[in-house]
Known about the structure:
- By secondary structure, the protein is mainly alpha-helical.
- 76% of the residues lie in helices and 0% in strands.
Amino acid sequence: MRGKKKKETYRDRWLKEHPDIHIHLTKDVYEKLLKLENILGKSKNDIVKDLINGAVIKFEEYGKKIEEEIRNKIYNECYNAILELFFESPDIFIIKLGKSIKSILCCFQYHVCAAINQLFLLIKINIGIK
């Protein structure tokens, strides 16, 4: 007498339609895939599927996006630190600013200049200069 045939489950049907694959990557390639995952905000699985399906990843766009995020972060951190120093002790702020203006401008260029201009406007308003 033959035994009963095992009933096919939903999982079995799903696995037939979605075969499992495994790939082995070098550490370097895997790290690049992790970076892509962070940059694109997609899973590794979705990135590989997109590449297989012919999706074009425009790395330059993401590079520009990352640079802009870094610039904004530096600007905000620098601006907040300068603003905090100014409100804690404006006299020390002005002395330190006078001593380090050249190095600040070299390091942070446009963003720091904008932050300093805004702070000078605050100084003028607080002192009453028009």
